[in-house]
Amino acid sequence: MELRALNGLSLPLTYDEYDGYDYDDPYSPYPPPPYYEPEPDYREPLQERRKPSTRIGRGTIVIATREHTLIYTTAQGEQFAYPIAVGREGKRWYGSTRVVSKREHPEWRPTASMRQKNPRLPAVVKPGPANPLGTRAIYLADGLLRIHGTNDPASIGTNASSGCFRMYRQDVEELYEMVHPGTRVVVQQ
Q1: In 3D, which of 71, 76, 78 has the Cα closest to residue 44?
Q2: Which position among 68, 105, 164, 180 bears the catalytic label?
């Protein structure tokens, strides 16, 4: 195995240095290399965000689409705020629903109307770096509306989706562990 020097230490070359997967590739068959710098935290503190206009009940997810923010209040009253991407104009839904199920490494199945508009879309996108749902999906209502990760982190904070709510990978993985089927979800403007 080839070695490289870092501050006098000999470390194996990483897969990335051979033009392979990125460090953050959750689907890579190779373990991530040692990481010596802290990852940036893209989340903003809750107090820096404008709070949603309705009261948040405990054990509830509130999605404030205008602010591109998802706020989860635990049963104990602790709040977690995350930046999100929301639906494009004409693709938004508002109201109250519940989490119906959750999936790790979900498959993405474009709807018939999506495939009609773009015939090049496959019937199914298996888990992996090209999957638009990312590493976690939290299904709402009838299962077509989701809170999920993304393969396009630059879309967070914008009106980019077909109605779902996109989150950074580390954020959706954290939320996924906290919420359960039956969790109330309120989507507001």
Answers
A1: 71
A2: 164
What is the C-alpha to C-alpha distance for residues 27 and 35, in angstroms, rounded to an integer? Answer: 18
Catalytic residue selected from 68, 105, 148, 180: 148
Sign of CA dihedral 71, 74, 75, 78: negative
Q: Are 172 and 147 in contact (CB under 8 A)?
A: yes
How many helices (H) and strands (E) the chain has is answered by 2, 11
Tens of pLDDT along 148-176?
A: 999 899 999 999 888 899 999 999 999 99
Among this protein's residues, is 68 annotated catalytic? no
| pLDDT 10s digits, 36-82 | 444 445 555 444 444 444 466 899 999 999 999 999 999 998 999 99
Quote the percentage of the chain above a pLDDT of 90: 46
Cα 126–Cα 127–Cα 133 angle in degrees, nearest 5: 105
Gap between the Cα atoms of 137 and 156, Å rounded:
16
